[in-house]
Amino acid sequence: MGNSQSQTKDEPLVFYGSNVSMDLSKDLMYHLHSESQKQKFTPSPSSSDAPSGSGAPAAVDAVQIENVVNQRVEQALHRLFTENPELTHPSAGDPHRSLLDLAHRESQLTHGSTEAVAQELRQAIEQYQPHSATAELPAAVQESRRAVVACYRDHTGRPLDCWQEVEKFKQSVREAQEAKWKQAL
């Protein structure tokens, strides 16, 4: 029955090539280009891996890297000591002492500015606090406010359970504002 269909035939398999050109997306081309750039500038573990005529940069050895790092550290230290003459050069005396003195002076400056900011905040609080103390809230607003706070404390994990208290508070505030406007007219 189905035996003849499962037998292999001696006919050769032929694949026809398509005449359609292959187009690659711009993203793929960019990715391939960036990968080739990364590989080109990544130092190889040993200089014998890269052929001399390949155009790839020669591998940088650890000694050269250490020399460059030391040179940059020396430049940074020299710049630090020229910008801050109160520092003593490490070769002249105890370098840790002078750096500690500088750190102490900087902390005093920072602490002083912190105290100034704190003083400004205290003045601002004192300036605005009397206004809030003179504003008397109606009893209904105070009571609904207390109810909202109590509900939030009772339902710390579920604040949405306090929606009724919040609505009552909003309504009492609206009524107090309307009463205030009516008195002003």
Structure keywords:
single chain, 185 residues, mainly alpha, 6 helices, 65% helix
Quick structural gist:
InterPro entries: DUF1690. This protein has helices at residues 3-6, 26-41, 62-83, 95-134, 139-154, 163-184. The radius of gyration is 40 Å and the shape is flat.
Give the SSE order as H and E letters. HHHHHH
Task: Summarize the main sheet.
Answer: none
- Strand fraction band? under 5%
- Tally of contiguous helical segments: 6
What proportion of the residues is helical, as a percent range?
A: 55-70%
- Mean pLDDT comes to 73
The 3D shape can be described as flat
**Helix-strand category:** mainly alpha
**Ends distance:** 103 Å
Alpha-carbon Rg, integer:
40 Å
Please tell me about this protein's structure.
There is one protein chain. This protein has 185 residues and is mainly alpha-helical. Among the domains are: 62-135; 136-184. The chain is 65% helix and 0% strand. The longest helix has 40 residues, at 95-134. The radius of gyration is 40 Å and the shape is flat. Residues 43-59 have a biased composition (Low complexity). Pfam families: DUF1690 (PF07956). InterPro entries: DUF1690. Residues 31-59 are annotated as: Disordered.
In terms of topology, how is this protein built?
Blueprint: H1 3-6, H2 26-41, H3 62-83, H4 95-134, H5 139-154, H6 163-184
Helix pairs in contact: 5-6
